[in-house]
């Protein structure tokens, strides 16, 4: 049965999509059947693996997922593309119990087809993110090493705890990931210490550094492993992948 990760943070620009794409790629390259699902209306994860947004979002329809999932250029990595259609974004932003049931049903139908499923959520703690969390088994939270990081995550934790209670323990904390890490900055070291003191063992030991390759790769429709396989970013997501596998 697949481990289903919702990659969430209500703040944009923290490395959420970068993590969704490159951790998915790392898991796939390690031999795991991996599915990346894009539910962010910006569709950045879809473009980052060289694909185009769908005419409509398959999670909102009745077509079985195996019929709409596409293969990427990375071996073992499949994609369920996002959609920029206004109606889809509106439905996702105002999800109800029916939408939650449908999404969970879709994911449950392919759990035996994949080892890992990663959902790139919108940058909000709204209804669609909550729906994705309800359908997931784990939540992964990227945190940028900056002053407001703790404030945003503290707010998000409330939503996560609510879902954990509503799903009878199906959802657990997969981990908190420190991103855009610059060890030369005192602020980075302070955030690192504060996050680990507050959240303890759920914080990943590995961090993701600031790396130009991670910024440039999406503009070429490539993962960092395709664009710059020897970069610091590629090494960081390889290490993160190993840590995720060890936590299985």
Provide a short characterization of the protein structure.
The protein is an alpha/beta fold and 248 residues long.
What does this structure look like?
The chain is an alpha/beta fold and 248 residues long. It is built from ten helices and seven strands. A seven-stranded mixed beta sheet has the order 3-4-2-5-1-6-7, with helices on both faces. Helix 4 (97-110) packs parallel to helix 5. The longest helix is centred in the middle third of the chain and has 18 residues, at 149-166.
Notable features of this structure?
7 strands; 248 residues; 10 helices; seven-stranded mixed beta sheet; single chain; globular; alpha/beta
Percent of residues in helices comes to 40-55%
The tally of helices reads 10
Assembly category:
single chain
Q: What is the averaged pLDDT score?
A: 90
Strand tally: 7
**What is the end-to-end distance?**
12 Å
What's the topology here?
Blueprint: E1 3-7, H1 16-29, E2 34-38, H2 44-48, E3 70-71, E4 77-80, H3 86-93, H4 97-110, E5 116-120, H5 127-135, E6 138-144, H6 149-166, E7 172-179, H7 186-199, H8 212-216, H9 224-227, H10 232-246
Parallel strand pairs: 1-5, 1-6, 2-4, 2-5, 6-7
Antiparallel strand pairs: 3-4
Helix pairs in contact: 1-10, 4-5
